[in-house]
Design brief:
This protein is of the alpha/beta class. It is about 20% helix and about 30% strand. The strands form ten sheets. Strands 1, 9, 10, 12, 13, 14, 15, 16 and 17 form a nine-stranded mixed sheet that branches. The chain has a six-stranded mixed sheet with strand order 7-6-5-2-18-19. Helix 4 packs across helix 11 (about 360-375) and helix 5 (about 115-120) runs antiparallel to helix 11.
């Protein structure tokens, strides 16, 4: 059956005539001859409901985010090209309080249009694919949101029920691809038809990350296998060029089944002309990809094909420019460039916008924006001390402590009277807002006093649900060994060595409360950031004790966590669905709210249950937000001092081990 889609309501924008003399056309538009056409593909990815340039957690404008601001550079960038296409690469539905407000407070009725769809409709997106976070609120909610889109949304690897033997026989929840019938203008001003195929993919790990919504309802196929099946059919149906919307990072050069980051493998499939990537919250082409196998940041190619990754939250617009040449009645790619355009820049330590927001986009979502601000401002309790995450990666931390306290409180109550009552309950929690790719302002900071929903969402960003696993003392140690991989190996006696491995995400740095332990940084990490065993004989976790005694490797423990980690997220050793003994109907955030409501006033002081093993004459450096200086005196058990300015607006601190 032919799966085509014609959008004759809008042809490509003729940029030169629309923009006037002040716009500099792309070289492909200037050089295109008769039977040659310049096609510009614009990409957004990982918008996570960020429409306004506004941080709902901090209750202030933020110049680094918001598709309303990205929209303004879209206008400029369209004008630089004779023909253009605007595509989204997924993860648009969850990720800030506006998403939660619609999912948990307001709800979606039939016929409602979600604010992210309102914004994307105003911008006249040509198509999108699904990201993993589209599934966070359940399938019914997702489909109600998708119904409001004025553009096609495709996904080639998620099927209703079980997978078929042949991928083409899968009962897919959305069309695997769409073929847009368009008209392009060549260098001589002549118009020609072109058929552009767009196919989408989402990581199969959704089946783990959102098993409570998906198990028994849908199945996810390996992205590469799905692409190998469907791309040839797109060509058979007359697609002149094929663009893969891969909500997936770049990943390893060698194929592995069910890769989470498979964009490199998808790009190398015959018939794929362009690869749009995302999921990793990075900008490609960019220095983070220097030296990555199969990637060329100079030419902007992934697996030899033009590719791009447009940052996150609207921070950048990804651009792939194609020089197309008409051969008979067919088009082929004869040249390409790739780049990312930012919406902000840092000057003298300050972030400033490069463009203003587009009023039309903001007005479309104004009521939802104001309702979200009111929603997150509702108070739930009091805190006697500041909650902050500036030192969450280097010392036991109040923002992580409060999450652990709430999880322990909840699980102990839930297991009361069950077969697992009386088994010691530990709690694993990680810092979510700890700088990194989020920038120097991406930290939790809640002052003493009233705690609002805004603050709880700031403490716990994701709509995970509470789960508990049953493991033994030996597995507790391996869990911590994996977490300790966030630190670089440190040479004893050396000065000012970098402490943090920037390839290790902070959300995988679990602190386990209920035990005490040290981390010996002189040892190499036992596991890689992907959970691979790389130094089997290493033992970074030292002095691991429970109730003041060395932990018994055979003793059983219940560990409170979330559905992501308990389901295998992060590839922690021996942690997976087979260890789960309790699946809560409540989100971690709801549990934190209930805990604060019951306590009335919380005391968020960290209990100092972990620290670094001493290393005489050794210092290390780490970077955190500039606001950290105000809290340096509150960090106990660690010798920290200021060490000047870091890079990109961060502040540098020194620890004496």
């Amino acid at each position: 059956m032919a799966r085509t889609h014609s959008l004759s309501r809008r042809t490509f924008l003729a940029g030169a005539s629309a923009a006037g003399a002040l716009i500099m056309l792309h070289p492909f538009s200037l050089r295109a001859a008769a039977n040659q056409a310049h096609l510009r593909i614009m990409e957004t990815t990982d918008l996570h409901v960020h429409v306004f340039p506004y941080d709902y957690y901090a209750d202030r404008e933020n110049h680094t985010m918001g598709v309303a601001r990205t929209a303004t550079i879209m206008d400029e960038i369209r004008a630089e090209a004779t023909n253009s296409l605007l595509l989204d690469n997924g993860d648009f539905l969850q990720g800030n309080p506006m998403g939660d407000y619609y999912a948990y407070e307001r709800g979606m009725q039939d016929g409602d249009v979600h604010p992210i769809m309102k914004a994307m409709n105003v911008l006249e997106f040509d198509a999108s694919t699904l990201g993993n976070h589209e599934f966070n609120y359940g399938l019914d909610f997702m489909f109600k949101v998708l119904d409001g889109a004025d553009f096609p949304i495709v996904c080639a690897n998620v099927a209703r029920g079980s997978l078929a033997e042949n991928p083409r026989d899968d009962d897919l929840i959305l069309p695997p691809y769409v073929i847009l019938d368009r008209t392009v203008t060549d260098g001589a001003g002549e118009e020609h038809p072109i058929r552009i195929g767009l196919i989408g993919f989402v990581p199969p790990q959704i089946m783990t990350w959102d098993s409570r919504h998906l198990e028994g309802n849908v199945s996810a196929r390996d992205m590469v296998k799905a692409a190998e099946a469907w791309v040839p059919q797109m060509r058979e149906e007359g697609a002149d060029i094929v663009v893969a919307l891969s909500h997936s990072g770049v990943g390893p050069a060698a194929y592995q089944e069910n890769l989470e980051n498979a964009s490199l493998q998808i790009a190398m499939i015959d018939g794929v002309d362009v690869i749009l990537t995302g999921h990793s919250h990075l900008a490609f082409p960019g220095p983070q990809f220097e030296g990555v196998d199969g990637v060329d940041i100079a030419s902007g190619t992934i697996g030899g094909k033009p590719g791009v990754m447009g940052g996150f939250w609207g921070s950048h617009l990804g651009l792939v420019d194609l020089m197309l040449e008409r051969d008979g009645n067919e088009w082929r790619v004869v040249g390409s460039t790739s780049e990312v355009r930012p919406i902000s820049e840092r000057v003298d330590g300050q972030t400033r916008p490069l463009v203003e927001s587009k009023a039309e986009v903001e007005e479309a979502v104004r009521e939802d924006h104001e309702a979200t601000i009111a929603y997150v401002g509702q108070p739930v309790g009091e805190t006697s001390a500041a909650l902050h995450s500036f030192f969450a990666l280097v010392a036991d931390d109040p923002s992580v402590q409060i999450v652990s306290n709430a999880q322990t409180w909840y699980i102990e109550d839930m297991l009361s009277g069950t077969e697992h009552a009386g088994i010691p309950v530990l709690s694993a929690a990680a810092p979510f807002k700890a700088g990194g790719r989020g920038g120097p302002e991406y930290f939790t900071e809640v002052p003493p006093g009233a705690v609002a929903i805004r603050n709880v969402a700031d403490l716990y960003l994701y709509p995970n649900t509470v789960q508990a696993v049953l493991i033994n003392g030996a597995q507790v140690k391996e869990w911590l060994e994996m977490s300790a991989g966030i630190f670089n190996q440190i040479e004893p006696g050396a000065s000012d060595q970098p402490l943090i491995n920037e390839d290790f995400p902070s959300y995988n740095f679990d602190v386990i409360d209920g035990v005490t332990y040290g981390i010996d940084l002189s040892q190499p990490p036992k596991y890689s950031p992907r959970g691979e065993l790389i130094n089997a004989d290493s033992s970074r976790i030292v002095d691991l004790e429970f109730e003041g005694q060395p932990i018994d490797p055979e003793q059983q423990f219940v560990v409170a966590s979330n559905n992501y980690r308990a389901g295998g997220g992060g590839s922690f050793p021996e942690i997976g669905p087979d260890k789960v003994i309790f699946e809560a109907p409540d989100t971690n955030r709801d549990v934190i709210v209930r805990y604060i409501v019951e306590q009335g006033t919380i005391n968020p002081s960290a209990d100092g249950n972990w620290g670094f093993a001493p290393m005489e004459g050794t210092t290390v450096l780490f970077e955190t937000g500039p606001r950290a200086s105000a809290f340096i005196g509150e960090v106990e058990g660690v010798a920290i001092e200021e060490a000047g300015e870091g890079e990109d607006g961060f502040a540098r601190f020194r620890i004496t081990l």
